[in-house]
Amino acid sequence: MKLLASSCKSPFPLTLLFILFSFISNAQPSFPTDPEQAELYYSDIEHFVEAYQELENNSDTLAVLQTFYFDRATPGLKEFINRHQLTPQMLKEALTKYPDRYGLIPSMLSNIRETEARYKELMKTYSTILPNAMYAPTWLLVDANRGIGQASMVGQLITVERVADNMEKLKKLTTHELTHFQQAMAMGGQKYVSLYSSSENMLGICLREGGAEFITWLVNDDITRTKSLTYIEENEEALKVRFKEDLQSQNKKYWLWDSLDQKDNPGLLGYAIGYKICKAYYDKADDKTQALNDILMMENAEEFLIKSTYFQ
């Protein structure tokens, strides 16, 4: 699972039980394998915009949000609420604190046909990279400005308030989350979530996120953590040393979700160095199809790192 490119701390550690339950308890889902049948759902945006407009004449913000948005939640929004405990009060506070962000959403909705067209093209391109992909739907949601995006067994959950004016960013985030779904399908739910219960999982998580970033790069010619990648490449030798040292102590603070509070350098550098390792593995491989399968499966992170020769 992953956080969208944002400045807030990832909710992942707080929602681990929800994620484990979702992936383990549900049977392997069945979604289309034809990219033409991939679905983009935005009813929750429509409901939010209705609430937003109603608030022009109705000062009871909590009641309006509850009636127009929460009570009409789609399966995607219901899954999101369960994972991240979104409430009308949280959304009200975010509306007050970040009015400009939410003011972009009606315009996004008015251009939703263009967004749909971009989504369809994205899915077609994705199928050229991973021909055997399964296309879980993408749910566009409105959250309390936390910048959350995750894969789930009901599909990709993407919050839009931070990307409403940036369709390229939305494409990259959707690609990243769809790739996490492919990882879960390739490995099976039990193996997929087992990484997060391990006490020494730093390398595995960086490579899982890096793998999703690498597929994102193949599809979009860019990754979600562009600033982190630039920082890695500008300081690569020193950061390689630090990464290896932190792997020994399993110190994730500089590399993963806690790093989003860092002020001196971009956060989530583990995503970017994971991408570099996956790219090195892919570039070195004679069989590119097998290399992509290895990136999706990633059952032995240490062995994968050695074979990548990234640190040599």
Task: Provide a brief overview of the structure.
With 312 residues, the protein is mainly alpha-helical. 58% of the residues lie in helices and 4% in strands.
Overview of this structure, please?
The chain has 16 helices and four strands. By secondary structure, it is mainly α. A hairpin with a 5-residue loop joins β3 and β4. The protein is globular and about 65 Å long.
Q: Please provide the count of β strands.
A: 4
Q: How much beta, percentage-wise?
A: under 5%
Strand order of the largest sheet: 1-2-4-3
The largest sheet, given as strand count, sense and whether it forms a barrel, is:
4 strands, mixed
Report how far the terminal alpha carbons are from each other: 30 Å
Assign the structural class, choosing from mainly alpha, mainly beta, alpha/beta, alpha+beta, or little secondary structure.
mainly alpha
The secondary-structure element order is: HEHHHHHHHEEEHHHHHHHH
Can you tell me the overall shape?
globular
Tally of separate helices: 16
The percent of residues in helical segments reads 55-70%
